[in-house]
Specification:
Elements: H1 7-12, H2 17-26, H3 38-50, H4 56-65
Amino acid sequence: MNAGRTVFSQLIEFLPHQEFQKCVARYAGNRYLKNLSCWDQYLAMAFAQLTYRESLRDIEALSSATTSYNSSNALFQPVFVM
């Protein structure tokens, strides 16, 4: 069983988060923020691209399947199995 971080979480670690936040601030990307920050939306879209999701419905189904983890962005958190 997996007791460490997900592969996606390890891949995301290499992305320049500070540079991304600079771009968001520069262009006021979070100005009309409702539910997801720009970073969370980027992570969701990157995950969808890497897992060959074909539609927004696929992403939404995956998102609703992970709500049992009781976290807003459970896809990107470490996985711990007891």
